[in-house]
Amino acid sequence: MNSLADPRVADLLSHLHQEADAQRRLIRERVASLATEAPGPEAWPHHLKDFYLPVSREQGRFLYQTVRATGARRVVEFGSSFGVSTIYLAAGLRDNGEGVVIGSELVEEKADKARTNLVTAGLGDHVEIRTGDARVTLNDPGGSVDLLLLDGGPGLYLEVLQMLVPHLRIGAVVVADNIEESVADPHPYARWVRDSESGFVSNSITLKGGTEYSVWVGKRDQD
Ligand SMILES: C[S@@+](CC[C@H](N)C(=O)[O-])C[C@H]1O[C@@H](n2cnc3c(N)ncnc32)[C@H](O)[C@@H]1O
């Protein structure tokens, strides 16, 4: 069983990725102008409300693989946008036999569109998208979490992760997108999860310019 090959899923993903690809030049221009106008980072999601900003096709397949490999049942997602990553995750859960993605999206119109896309893909039964600030809406994920995708503003990753750590099962996987760094200048989020005191074992993987892959192994005093 591979729901990524299901025509409802494959056709919709192909369409959404194509629409996102077509926005690339416009996004670069918009981000550059936002950086000059310098509104606070909290305003950016609303200024970028028409843009997909999705995971890449390779990241999406990797998320599907991870859901299948871990036998995940409960997945949490920080930053759902129009639901592209959510579709890959929900497809994996359906093929695992059951499960739910708890998504989160600050911009209401985007959350509505994501829900519609999941229904169009035939995956609506495997998704609950919560509208609002993930630092509030994901506070209670409703059970033990097998996989967490961090794909909202990278400046908030640590706060969202630390809020969810008490809900991670041992062996839970955390995938963080947009961790762009250099040896001389490691990303603060990556520096934190790579410290063995954090309770994670973590590595950068070469997907879309910087994806951090972390496994929750627990803190020593929890053994
Ligand atoms: C990079 S996009 C997510 C892309 C999505 N994962 C996909 O693959 O289609 C980041 C999204 O996070 C949302 N976001 C930013 N800050 C947020 C917050 N505090 N709570 C919830 N969503 C937030 C933005 O509105 C934006 O849609």
Give your account of this protein's structure:
With 223 residues, the protein is α/β, with parallel strands linked by helices. It has one domain (3-11, 51-222): Rossmann fold (3-Layer(aba) Sandwich), CATH 3.40.50.150. Helices cover 42% and strands 19% of the residues. The protein is built from nine helices and seven strands. The chain has a seven-stranded mixed β-sheet with strand order 3-2-1-4-5-7-6, with helices on both faces. Helix 5 (84-96) links the parallel strand 1 (74-78) and strand 2. The chain is globular, with a radius of gyration of 17 Å. The termini are far apart. The mean pLDDT is 94. S-adenosylmethionine binds next to helix 5, strand 2 and helix 7.
Walk me through the topology.
Layout: H1 7-22, H2 24-37, H3 44-47, H4 57-70, E1 74-78, H5 84-96, E2 100-105, H6 108-120, E3 127-131, H7 134-137, E4 145-150, H8 157-164, E5 168-176, H9 188-194, E6 200-205, E7 211-216
Parallel strand pairs: 1-2, 1-4, 2-3, 4-5
Antiparallel strand pairs: 5-7, 6-7
Helix pairs in contact: 4-5
Residues 45, 52-55, 79-82, 84-85, 104-107, 110, 133-135, 151-153, 156 line the site of S-adenosylmethionine.
